[in-house]
């Protein structure tokens, strides 16, 4: 046992387990970011749908609301909430990568998240600046 055989094997095994733990942590961070993307995309699309559908019903005099700007404000609120929440999710992802000490090699979910943030901002800007009927 003085030749160091079992110790070096144990060290290699421990290093392999440590490397795999880091991989599992990265995959968990990716899954969490994808959950943020899914939730934000749902809020953004639901806000846009409310904005368009209720606005259409209101413009065609199918429904009458106490506040005519209600569907617009609700759509803007949900779209903004989805966009802000995804931005928070991306920041949490970056913080997790730094905390784990992983090189900031972003995966595809990171880029998809920024595309969805851009989509949310575009939709939000369009809803906020549109005046008059829906």
- Give the SSE order as H and E letters: HHH
How far apart lie the N and C ends?
81 Å
Question: In total, how many beta strands?
Answer: 0
Number of helices: 3
Mean pLDDT: 83
Give the structural class: mainly alpha
Number of structural units classed as domains? 1
Query: Given the C-alpha coordinates, what overall shape results?
Result: rod-shaped
The portion of residues assigned to helices is over 70%
Uncertain runs = none
Topology:
Blueprint: H1 5-59, H2 70-100, H3 108-129
Helix pairs in contact: 1-2, 1-3, 2-3
Describe this protein's structure.
Helix content is 81%, strand content 0%. It has one domain (30-129). The relative contact order is 0.16. The chain has helices spanning 5-59, 70-100, 108-129. The protein is rod-shaped, with a radius of gyration of 24 Å. The model has no long low-confidence stretch (mean pLDDT 83). The termini are far apart. Helix 1 (5-59) packs antiparallel against helix 2 (70-100), helix 1 packs parallel to helix 3 (108-129) and helix 2 (70-100) runs antiparallel to helix 3 (108-129). The chain contains three helices and no strands. The chain is mainly α and 134 residues long.
Descriptive tags:
134 residues; single chain
Give a brief description:
With 134 residues, this protein is mainly α.
